[in-house]
């Protein structure tokens, strides 16, 4: 009896020590992961000449906001692009979740007659696509979405991978007995979906929501292809255009004269654009973090 007690105490002490080591390791690792972000922020507030002389540093030799002054020469343009990106991200994520769920739920049901056909149809689109030219003609000529805000939303509404993850989660985690019981009680399919399926599927909704949010927020490709009016471009495309302008001036500085380049903080501007672009999206992670890992791992167990 005494030996068993001693063994139990020894195991508890060993477990506590192991947890302490693991927690210490991941705490240090988390701090290390934050260093690049802190470095980017510090560089964006560093004077360009100090960067050229001393290089990158977590502790700037000379603070400066010249990079942000350069980017915000026309504040209305940045604010407008921010507004477009925020609207596209919110509207696109919500619509994407609705459409993905409404497609994934039926093909997850065993009693749906054509589930295999529609599942294969989704999988087929992961392997083959119509190509860039037909894709462009479809949205610009036939759907008449070119140079509209909706062309930044509709192309990304349904993603095949996200749809299959959500379908798998529905199949593995929504018991058919609950649905059958609700039917016996007289609940309609819409009521079952809204009041039973969606509350039970919060982890996968959070996971797919995070994927969609990142897709819309980081997109610049659709603005490049479809948007002509400068007042309708999103933030990422505007940042990309500023970066290309700086690169062009940097490559042709010998022809333009040194005085032109002295007024443009090239390296700090690049980092300032990273800070501006990543700022608001960081607030999305705490909202999705609670369900993210569970939704991703459980929803991807089986195909």
TrEMBL record:
Its main location: membrane. It is a multi-pass membrane protein. This is ABC-type sugar transport system, permease component. Residues 82-282 form the ABC transmembrane type-1 domain. CDD domains: TM_PBP2. It comes from Ruminiclostridium cellobioparum subsp. termitidis CT1112. It is found in: Cell membrane. SUPFAM superfamilies: MetI-like. It holds the Pfam family BPD_transp_1. The keyword Transcription does not apply. One of its GO terms (cellular component) is plasma membrane. GO terms for biological process: transmembrane transport.
């Amino acid at each position: 009896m005494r030996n068993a007690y001693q063994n139990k105490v020894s195991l508890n002490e060993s477990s506590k020590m192991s947890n302490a080591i693991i927690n210490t390791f991941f705490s240090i690792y988390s701090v290390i992961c934050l260093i690049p972000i802190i470095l980017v922020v510090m560089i964006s507030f560093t004077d360009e000449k100090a960067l050229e002389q001393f290089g990158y540093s977590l502790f700037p030799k000379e603070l400066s906001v010249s990079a942000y002054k350069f980017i915000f020469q026309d504040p209305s343009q940045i604010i407008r692009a921010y507004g477009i990106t925020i609207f596209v991200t919110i509207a696109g994520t919500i619509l994407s979740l609705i459409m993905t769920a409404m497609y994934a739920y039926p093909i997850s049901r065993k009693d749906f007659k054509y589930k295999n056909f529609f599942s294969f149809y989704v999988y087929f689109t992961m392997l083959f696509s119509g190509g860039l030219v037909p894709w462009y003609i479809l949205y610009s000529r036939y759907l008449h979405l070119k140079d509209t805000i909706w062309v930044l939303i509709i192309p990304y509404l349904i993603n095949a991978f996200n749809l299959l993850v959500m379908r798998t989660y529905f199949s593995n985690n929504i018991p058919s007995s609950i649905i059958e019981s609700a039917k016996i009680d007289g609940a309609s399919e819409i009521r079952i979906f809204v009041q039973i399926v969606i509350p039970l599927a919060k982890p996968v909704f959070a996971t797919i929501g995070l994927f969609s949010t990142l897709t819309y927020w980081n997109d610049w490709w659709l603005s490049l292809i479809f948007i002509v009016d400068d007042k309708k471009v999103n933030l990422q495309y505007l940042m990309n255009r500023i970066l290309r302008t700086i690169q062009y001036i940097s490559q042709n500085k010998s022809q333009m004269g040194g005085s032109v380049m002295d007024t443009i903080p090239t390296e700090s501007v690049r980092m300032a654009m990273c800070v501006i672009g990543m700022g608001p999206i960081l607030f999305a992670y705490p909202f999705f973090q609670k369900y993210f890992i569970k939704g991703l791992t459980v929803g991807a167990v089986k195909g």
